[in-house]
Amino acid sequence: MKETWRWFGPNDTISLEKIIQAGATGIVTSLHEIATGDAWPLAEIQARKQIIEVAGLEWSVIESIPMHNDIKTRTGNFQHYIDNYKASIRNAGEAGIKVICYNFMPVVDWTRTNLMYRLPNASHALRFEMTDFAAYDVYLLQREGAEKNYSADVMARAKERFNAMSPAEKELLEKNIIAGLPGGQGSYTRETIKLAIQQFIDLGTEGMRENLFAFLREILPVAESVGVKMCIHPDDPPFSLFGLPRVVSTANDARAILEAVPSKANGLTLCAGSYGARGDNDLIAMANEFGPRIYFTHLRNVKREADGSFFEAEHLDGDNDMVGLINALLCEEKRRSNAGELNACIPMRPDHGHLMGDETGQTDVKPGYSYTGRLKGLAELRGVMHALETLQNRNS
What we know:
Order of helices and strands: EHEHEHHEEEHHHHEHEHHEEEHEH
Number of helices: 13
Number of domains: 1
Oligomer: single chain
Shape: globular
């Protein structure tokens, strides 16, 4: 598998030199300075690619070209934004970048309630706590009808939790959920997030799904024409938040997406942590079924709890069978190679490493993207891949 690293551009505190020292050979990045909805100019893509290549690395995956909410709702200037998205794909392909990861999550991107969950070894992980989320949704955001989305047990705990929160704790919870996370066109206020949420609730799951299919029918011919593979990232977490529709959360969702537009350019990002936050998602079965259309993978692990809460665990110590998943992906690579397919290697990256060591307490570390935590995760994953590849070669 192609070992890659998420890099946030020239202003990232983690340099390309440090990424090389971590052992990665590919970069996963985006042109973060370009506003959501604007087309990516070819010259700017080429300039960023040159910086990466001069350092001795490859720009392996674009993650991502941000998608304007008008595309997801098919309202406002959605056709203008789709046309811009097509131009960005075309320019990426012309620049030689052939894999684009994107998502179709409504309103907010990945969502956590605690960005500094302390683990027994004194490192810190990202956590989604259902009680805290319900407390925010019902009592702080005061979304109309929110209490209908939670069980009586969760509601009782949420009320108790909210009443015990200090003003500072409430402010931090809100910041963790909606302020600064890469959702939609940027951060939200309470009023703007409620308006956006209601717009998607009114759209509904089937309306949201059809809007995704309509988007794919428009952009995939462009992707095909320039040899680009699109791979959709699952919802994170893979269940409804704020009563919002979710259309990329299960194996059935993935199956529907691939069947809706039967193009080889239409693929998946297998994010083990996102799909794996649901106990009913069998990651190995998904890798086996969807293998030919998996163009990118995020390898991270989670510890799940009965009410839907979870925290991000050690890469090899969670509820997901990471060894089995990597083995399934390596088998898919071998199948591609035996079939004579070009670029049989699947790009992977360690995702959401723990905050530890000297980085603890530093204010410029992006939540989930510490250097040491991802370095540790990549080393562990590399060891698994090496061991499995050695066994496969001995048995072949």
